[in-house]
Amino acid sequence: MKKRIIFATGNAGKMKEIKSIFSDFDGEIVSMKEAGIDCEIEENGTSFEENALIKAKAIHKITGDIVLADDSGLEVDFLNKEPGIYSARYMGEDTPYSVKNENIIKRLEGVPVEKRTARFVCVIAAVLPDGSTKVVRKTIEGYIGYEEKGENGFGYDPIFMVPEYNKTTAELTMEEKNKISHRGKALQTMKEELKGDI
Fold first, then answer.
1. Half-sphere exposure of residue 96, counting CA atoms within 13 Å on the CB side?
2. Cβ–Cβ contacts within 10 Å for residue 138, how many?
3. What is the pLDDT of residues 70-120, one digit of tens each?
4. Domain ranges of the chain
5. What are the pLDDT digits (tens) for 154-194?
6. Long-range interactions of 14-17: CB distance < 8 A, separation 24+
7. Is the peptide bond before 83 cis (omega within 30 degrees of 0)?
8. Would the pTM count as exceeding 0.90?
């Protein structure tokens, strides 16, 4: 029987990145939706690590499969690391990212580039069939740009500048992004961690 990994997300952009990185996995990788799971998970942890584990454990309880879940977000130093673990719910659950991005740019008005430092954080938690867990955290450092740029990303990608490319993460190709992004690095690391298990 082919092994199955369920990734606890409904985000199509994320699934695209995940499937691209795990393309050599001999089994299927499915989202919660593809696995036919529809449940609300309350992410009430106080850190990226806690939230990722809450999600992974909740889905594992239902399926018993290998479950991966991530919790990721943007930390802007000048804004006391906001939006942080509230990145997805920042300014309200259904607020479009164009509005969130504009708000962050507005709050940084007049702030010089050296004080606009920020990072994307990605924590991935895995729960294995026997209930054991693994957790990895990766970041990508950059700064907040002055306007939205690029069509390739989602979320806060259009305002996050990557100094070594002098582009936003939304202007990078999928290959470039997977090499350097917080999620790309966390997924690669988790893939290594799971080598004996998948």
1. 4
2. 20
3. 999 999 999 999 999 999 899 998 899 999 999 999 999 999 999 999 999
4. 3-193
5. 899 999 999 999 999 999 998 888 888 888 899 999 999 88
6. 14/70, 14/183, 16/174, 17/174, 17/177, 17/178, 17/181, 17/183, 17/184, 17/187
7. yes
8. no
Identify whether 130 is a catalytic site residue: no
What are 40's two structure tokens?
Answer: 């609300």
Which of 71, 77, 130, 157 is an active site residue? 71
At the topology level, CATH places domain 3-193 in Maf protein (3.90.950)
At residue 30, the 3 state secondary structure works out as strand
Copy the structure tokens of residue 74. Answer: 């943007």
Structure tokens at 122: 């990605």
List strand residue ranges (DSSP E) for the chain, in order.
Answer: 3-7, 27-31, 66-76, 82-83, 117-127, 133-144, 160-162, 167-168
Q: In a 10 Å sphere around its CB, with 0-12 CB exposed, 13-18 middle and 19+ buried, how is residue 74 labelled?
A: buried
Q: How many Å separate Cα 82 from the centre of its chain?
A: 16
The CA-CA-CA angle for residues 11, 41, 71, to 5°, reads 50
If we measure between CA atoms, which residue out of 118, 135, 138 comes closest to residue 49? 135
